[in-house]
Amino acid sequence: MENKTLLQIAEDFGSPVYVYNAETITNQYKRLTSAFNKVKQLRINYAVKALSNISILKLLRSLGSGLDTVSIQEVKLGLAAGFEPSQIIFTPNGVSLEEIEEASDLGVQINIDNLSILEQFGTKFPNIPVCIRINPHVMAGGNTNISVGHIDSKFGISIHQIPHILRIVDNTAMTINGIHMHTGSDILDIDVFLYASEILFETAKNFSNLEFIDFGSGFKVPYKEGDIETNIEELGEKLTKRFNEFCKDYGKQLTLAFEPGKFLVSEAGFFLAKVNVVKQTTSTVFAQIDSGFNHLIRPMLYGSQHKISNISNPNGRERFYSVVGYICETDTFANNRRINEISEDDILAFGNAGAYCFTMASNYNSRFRPAEVLWHNNKAHLIRQRETFDDILRNQVEINLN
Predict the structure, then answer these.
(1) Going by C-beta distance under 8 Å and a sequence separation of 6 or more, which residues neighbour residue 73?
(2) pTM of this prediction?
(3) Structure confidence by residue, pLDDT tens digits, 42-63
(4) CATH code assigned to 266-386
(5) Known binding site for substrate: residues?
């Protein structure tokens, strides 16, 4: 997407605004399926939590994707987007048995990650096949908040508890039709991924009725010029070879599943914000924008770095700026970043704003959440309206205090 297109979108829909490029999402999906084109049965389940707008879900459905969901609301959103229940896997963590039962009633694939729920569900519904999420005890990911496969993680059933799983399966006569893992996000070293995969293959040997093995995701995408990323092509070549060997030894052709979120949508997204004030202090030049971590929390929460471009003055001389928001506490997007000279009312474009950006937005400071726009077939489509003051008040209940 060219700067003039983004500037026009900011003018037409106001700022701040999220913009997603459908072509980038499509290309990423095709890149992943191409890397694993030698697998006979491949299933891509898009991780809804990354970006849950229903128009994005419909786009991915048109590409052949399934869905990875973590809440009953995401399950229902997927069904509303036209996905069949068989195309949706439900992988919650720490939810009630009632929520899992509700998802099961809707006909989606259930993925269970703790022994207590496994026993309760198996006792009550022994005829409903389920997947089991394994914790491989592998530390992987770009931040402790997104490393979910290590020994102290709340996610998954420990590989050391396989005997407990087998006891429950035997006692309830339930069927395990899938094995799953997810070690973390922003995984760079594919050898770590392949090592964890070997643990999953070894675990899978304990179950005779498998239909699929889900390797999760966590592929790293580049966040700045020259940044490194997961080598999907090399991973595809090596994991495909090992997976096909396992299926041959297992005596059955299984489905290889992934659940990418960031990999598919991160680079497709731009967050556009207007500069309200350029403020010079004794040591810093601040570019203060019409947004804050209420709209883009990742830099403050994860220390993530999003490329920031001044699309109003792309050829201006570079200067050092700290880009900050309008929230009433520390609210920093970038410290001393080289950006083309910024003036008030310029539009800044934040890259990699497609994943875990709008979905983590809030009304903190009673601010409105932004609009979302999808750039599809060379046309800007509004896919979420900007909130209004009525939205702030909508679910509040005024009481008579007299």
Answers:
(1) none
(2) 0.93
(3) 999 999 999 999 999 999 999 9
(4) 2.40.37.10
(5) 298, 302, 329, 356
